[in-house]
Amino acid sequence: MHELSLADAIVSALVKKCEEEGWGAVRVVNLRVGALRQVFPEMLRFAFETLVKDTPLSGAALEIEEVPLSWRCGECGSVWAEET
Questions:
Q1: For residues 38 and 84, what is the distance between their CA atoms, to the nearest angstrom?
Q2: How do residues 1-16 score in pLDDT, each as one tens digit?
Q3: Nearest alpha carbon to residue 3 among 28, 37, 52
Q4: Radius of gyration of the chain (CA)
Q5: What is the pLDDT of residue 42?
Q6: 64 — alpha (psi -120 to 50), left (phi > 0) or beta?
Q7: Which helix (H) or strand (E) holds 5?
Q8: How far apart are CA 66 and CA 12, in angstroms?
Q9: Mean per-residue pLDDT for 64-71?
Q10: 1, containing H or E segment
Q11: What pLDDT does 1 receive?
Q12: Which of 24, 40, 59, 65 is least buried, going by the fewest C-beta atoms within 10 A?
């Protein structure tokens, strides 16, 4: 379950930023996750909610945007996306 290590890295980076910048609290964390990252959003959200307790992020919501696959032709620049 790499979601726990991802959540830990996110929380650690944001706690450090809170300390450096003097942020009082963080209420929402927006995260974009690509389709090939093999991340289960609900597991990541659960790990995040567990790790933020007793930190400046306590009570913060993790909003996850899942980004679909897309390709770009190197020759013509055309872009197409995965069918959903």
A1: 16
A2: 689 999 999 999 999 9
A3: 37
A4: 16
A5: 93
A6: beta
A7: helix 2-21
A8: 22
A9: 90
A10: none
A11: 60
A12: 24
User: Hey, what amino acid is at 17?
Assistant: K
Structure tokens, 83: 């069918």
Do strands 61-67 and 28-34 pair parallel, antiparallel, or not at all (unpaired)? Answer: parallel
Please name the amino acid found at residue 57.
L
Alpha-carbon separation of residue 61 from 37, 41, 49, 57, 70 (angstroms): 21, 13, 8, 9, 28
| 30 DSSP β-pair partners | 63
Indicate the burial class of 54 (C-beta count within 10 angstroms; 0-12, 13-18, 19 or more): exposed
Q: pLDDT band at 30, cuts 50/70/90?
A: very high
